[in-house]
Amino acid sequence: MHSTPTQAVVLAGGQGSRLRPYTDDRPKPMVEIPGTGTPIIGHQLSWLAAEGVTHAVVSCGHLAEVLQEWLEDADLPLKVTTVVETEPLGRGGGLKYAAARLPSPDEPWYATNGDIWTRFSLREMAAFHAERDALATLALARPRIPWGAVETDTFGHITDFIEAPPSPFLINAGVYVFSADFTGLLPDLGDHERTTFPRLAREQRLAGFPLPQGAYWRAIDTAKDLTEAAKELAAQRA
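^ that's the sequence the OP posted. Answer follows.
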């Protein structure tokens, strides 16, 4: 049995209403990062393949046919199967529905939300997962707060202004490692983050993998996120 997953699920069914008009004629993962000529899901699949994934199941929903057509025509570095939710199953139900099409149900698997653009070592995350004997491991990010912050002293004087500081809290980064047994704990309908995850946390079978220092991570939710991602990419290339 592989300790490092070679299979993955990509949840790509969201409507992306906050990304309109980009999502009027395409699903959210099909939106291109400006300057790359490649949709978000193209970046994701290339990353998964580079991390040893050989088969991905893409769960489609909104404008599924647009995504399926692109996947059929694209020169992809791994095998891709698509599933379509005929009715909304919720995040947990969607994961379970897609996981049923994984080629090796007795082996661990990765999962990622279709609007995440990131780069870090999934192999290191899988090793972290195995070392802790977890049923599920979440990648944890520390995003920057989108507003400037103000520091004050105990008397109330402002002492400093900080532009877009990092959040004091870690958040779910939308990338996961799941053991094979996790699939059976997912709800058929509903949100696993309100049911399965809290249960595993109480049982100490849920782990959190902080993204390594300097790892790139961004959730693409709005047009501003697209602009910022393009700026960051240009800076990296420079």
